[in-house]
């Protein structure tokens, strides 16, 4: 059993490229999952953990936020879920000896793969000012130092509290209470870089910042449009749902610059059909769109539907439009005015092709649009998603069976974290309920989102940083700027399961607080505790870790935060009031508070007790109730936007390989795309390689060009191998986080502020 950590970083000279695959999962995926599990956990623990993933009395998979089906398979997991579990449940450990043996300077020299492979963190550690190494520190002392640092701030708004989407409802709720009790709403989270654009567009047009479909709706849809998403890698269990929909007669349209294997064909390892009979063809139509062209596509669909509606009264759902929507006339006029030539330029598809796609929409009785980062990480993401909503509203595709919007969320509890208050712009009604429940006054002024937080650190306006999970330094854009900004902070604190760059690029002082993960057994107050999470479709359920934790005295996130509340709020005037010790000893009491603060959680404990999943209320889905400015679902008129790529330049999207979870690099392959043993590649059209005077296999630097207020700024990422790939002309792709250094901090989506990680203008440069 190999549970020894690697001694070397990824050796890019061993990189090998083969033809991409055209189908996903199947038996090789299962074998790969088992191999990685056994390497990290050994045989016994592998079996213990893999049978508990997503079972009713087991733990929620720490992978993605795709919901579980009500009837569970014995092994309700996917290859990448198994990798996520193996990464957390690994038997490798790093304690004081490890930190004594490696200076922070040395650790900084390693890549993200190496850092993540070292093992689970087991002891609280501190990096003193000017020190070369972390040293162990007691829990009490660590919490005292944090409390002291917070007291030394001139203003609570000098502190920043980041959250990543793995935190449970219980820990996230306590965390936001701690932060608001301290007097700030500086609660940036990973969502700011992820589905914030979805939240912005959907709240405005439908009155709720979430999707409006259930898993059953997916099964019953007549047409599914999957745009800007790579489910074969990032939401593999979604493929089973798509397969079911297909068997029920659905049509699937995949919209993507890249012909992702998982969108094309699925060999379900849990059915004989998948294993023996060659699986299911998924996409009936692959629309190879230019990156950033989706607004053009959805405007074209709307335009066509409105044109044909003149002769065919059945095309639009007039009754729905009349009764439930506002703004129809303005929208219709706006799309009528957009020339087809513009829509062709935006999408790279001709009018006939666009009308053909629209005809499929016209023919559908019930349509769902699913999307992820390909639609949310552009400058014009919010108008793009408003135009997605427009198309669905035309045919009354909100609030009825098999129809609706389906933003497919990333982190397994990112949606729940937002529901329980992780938000820099909290609604007043939420704050008022919080005030009543805890007898204090929460601050009303909005806080920093992720990008604003980086600016504040960079400009010396923030002096304290804390991360509840995540890897702020590697996940955020403009790596060089972020590293510099982080170094200006007085104290940075990370509550983490695994080592990452945010532990080695730190404030002047730094503290690591190790914590339990989703899979670990959590005994507190003499009993085993469970937590709750919300999936991508607004369904809440319990999760209970079952594996022996890495170290006996390791605290859960919930316990760490409850203890901090006790310490910081003791005897403080105006602080939130609660029995912190009781909350730490019994998480059900935290759920009690949540049930009194947040609508929809009534009888919370009883409902999770039954081992059931319950859906939170969803106005548009449940009752066609739209809490918008007009009290109706809103059609909106949006000016068409799409990226203009200057001569000789490329539009680079930064995406995930098959062997990573965001900044956690599980392995060195991207099997479906034919990349093996390395990550520094750029996928690029062969004619673009030739036009730039290069050949496939050449190693180049990527230089991003950003026209900012101070003129054109350049950023460089060194030594990437060119790989000829099936992508639209002048659209290129490379992996995140290696390319984050190229994404300018100020290049963000309008309205949502999300970094434009899918649209970076770059040129290729010969290596000096
Ligand atoms: N195994 C694994 N699972 C994960 C994650 C992981 O890293 N690993 N991350 C989790 C998280 S936090 C998230 S947010 C999700 C991310 O899930 P995805 O959004 O699927 O992740 P990306 O790799 O960013 O893929 C973006 C997809 O959009 C396409 N795309 C890029 N630009 C455009 C465009 O302009 N238009 C269209 N139509 N398509 C475009 C890309 O070609 C790619 O297929 O996955 C979650 N699940
Ligand atoms: N260029 C570019 N940048 C991007 C994106 C992109 O597509 N392109 N995607 C963006 C998106 S969608 C997202 S969501 C963000 C992700 O941003 P983050 O959520 O900040 O990053 P992760 O890599 O998921 O965080 C991994 C770390 O979380 C810690 N961790 C894991 N599980 C637990 C746990 O249970 N508890 C605690 N306390 N810690 C835990 C481990 O220490 C691990 O190293 O990145 C964004 N950045
Ligand atoms: Mo995400």
Brief digest:
With 768 residues, the chain is α/β, with parallel strands linked by helices. Residues 650-760 form the Molybdopterin dinucleotide-binding domain.
Oligomer: single chain
What form results from the Cα inertia axes?
A: globular
Structural class: alpha/beta
- Determine the number of helices (DSSP H or I, runs of at least 4 residues): 31
* Name of the CATH first level of the largest domain: Alpha Beta
The total tally of domains equals 4
| Low-pLDDT stretches | none
The CATH topology assignment of the largest domain is Rossmann fold
Radius of gyration, taken over Cα atoms and rounded to an integer in Å: 25 Å
List of distinct ligands in this structure = ligand MGD, molybdenum atom
Average residue pLDDT: 93
* CATH arch. level architecture of the largest domain: 3-Layer(aba) Sandwich
Helix content: 25-40%
The N- to C-terminal Cα distance equals 44 Å
Biggest sheet strand order reads 6-5-18-17-16-7
- Major sheet attributes: 6 strands, mixed
């Amino acid at each position: 059993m190999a549970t020894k950590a690697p001694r070397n970083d990824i050796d890019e000279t061993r990189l090998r490229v083969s033809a991409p695959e055209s189908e996903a999962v199947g038996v090789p995926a299962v074998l790969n999952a088992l191999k990685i599990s056994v390497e990290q956990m050994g045989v016994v623990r592998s079996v213990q953990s893999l049978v508990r993933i997503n079972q009713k009395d087991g733990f929620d998979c720490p992978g993605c936020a795709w919901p579980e089906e009500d009837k569970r398979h014995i092994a309700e997991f996917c290859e990448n879920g198994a990798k996520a579990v193996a990464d957390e449940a690994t038997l490798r450990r790093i304690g004081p000896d490890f930190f004594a043996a490696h200076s922070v300077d040395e650790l900084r020299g390693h890549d993200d793969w190496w850092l993540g492979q070292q093992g689970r963190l087991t002891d609280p550690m501190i990096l003193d000012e000017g020190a070369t190494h972390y040293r162990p520190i007691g829990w009490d002392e660590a919490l005292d130092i944090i409390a002291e640092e917070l007291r030394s701030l001139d203003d609570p708004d000098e502190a920043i509290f980041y959250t990543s989407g793995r935190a449970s409802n219980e820990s996230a709720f306590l965390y936001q209470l701690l932060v608001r009790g301290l007097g700030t709403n500086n609660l940036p989270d990973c969502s700011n870089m992820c589905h914030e654009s979805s939240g912005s567009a959907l709240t405005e047009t439908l009155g709720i910042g979430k999707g409006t479909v259930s898993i059953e709706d997916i099964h019953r849809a007549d047409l599914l449009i999957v745009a800007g998403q790579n489910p074969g890698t990032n939401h593999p269990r979604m493929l089973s749902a798509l397969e079911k929909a297909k068997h029920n007669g659905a049509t699937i349209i995949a919209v993507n610059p890249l012909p992702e294997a998982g969108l094309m064909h699925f060999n379900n390892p849990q059915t004989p059909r998948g294993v023996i009979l060659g699986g299911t063809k998924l996409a009936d139509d692959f629309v190879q769109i230019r990156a950033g062209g989706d607004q053009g596509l959805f405007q074209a669909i709307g335009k066509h539907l409105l044109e044909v509606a003149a002769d065919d009264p059945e095309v639009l759902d007039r009754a729905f439009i009349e009764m439930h929507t506002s703004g129809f006339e303005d929208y219709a006029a706006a799309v009528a005015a957009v020339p087809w030539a513009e829509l062709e330029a935006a999408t790279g598809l001709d009018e006939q092709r666009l009308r053909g796609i629209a005809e499929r929409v016209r023919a559908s009785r019930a349509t769902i649009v699913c999307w992820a980062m390909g639609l949310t990480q552009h400058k014009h993401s919010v108008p793009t998603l408003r135009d997605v909503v427009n198309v669905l509203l035309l045919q009354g595709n909100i609030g009825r069976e098999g129809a609706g919007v389906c933003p497919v969320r990333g982190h397994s509890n990112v949606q729940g974290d937002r529901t329980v208050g992780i938000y820099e712009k909290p609604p007043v009604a939420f704050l008022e309920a919080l005030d009543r429940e805890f007898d204090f006054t929460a601050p009303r002024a909005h806080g920093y989102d992720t990008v604003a937080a980086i600016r504040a650190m960079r400009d010396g306006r923030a002096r304290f940083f804390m991360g509840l999970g995540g890897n702020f330094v590697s996940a955020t854009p403009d790596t060089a700027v972020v590293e510099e900004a982080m170094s200006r902070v007085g104290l940075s604190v990370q509550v983490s399961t695994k080592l990452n760059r945010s532990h080695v690029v730190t404030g002047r002082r730094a503290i690591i607080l190790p914590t339990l993960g989703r899979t670990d057994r959590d005994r507190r107050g003499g009993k085993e505790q469970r937590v709750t999470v919300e999936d991508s479709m607004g369904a809440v359920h319990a999760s209970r870790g079952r594996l022996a934790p890495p170290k006996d005295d390791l605290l859960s996130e919930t316990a760490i935060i409850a203890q901090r509340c006790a310490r910081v709020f003791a005897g403080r005037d105006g602080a939130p009031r609660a029995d912190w010790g009781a909350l730490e000893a019994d998480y059900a009491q935290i759920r009690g508070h949540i049930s009194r603060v947040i609508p929809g959680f009534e009888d919370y404990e009883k409902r999770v007790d039954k081992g059931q999943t319950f859906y939170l209320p969803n106005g548009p889905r449940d009752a066609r109730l739209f809490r918008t400015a007009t009290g109706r679902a809103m059609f909106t008129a949006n000016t068409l936007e799409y990226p203009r790529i200057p001569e000789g330049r490329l539009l680079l999207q930064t995406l995930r390989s098959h062997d990573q979870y965001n900044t956690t690099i599980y392995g060195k392959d991207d099997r479906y795309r034919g990349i093996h043993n390395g990550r520094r590649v750029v996928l690029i059209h062969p004619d673009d390689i030739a036009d730039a005077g290069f050949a496939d296999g050449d190693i180049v630097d990527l230089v991003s060009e950003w026209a900012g207020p101070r003129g054109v700024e350049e950023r460089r990422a060194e030594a990437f191998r060119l790989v000829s790939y099936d992508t639209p002309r002048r659209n290129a792709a490379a992996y995140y986080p290696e390319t984050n250094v190229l994404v300018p901090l100020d290049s963000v989506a309008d309205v949502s502020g999300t970094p434009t990680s899918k649209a970076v203008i770059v040129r290729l440069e010969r290596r000096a």
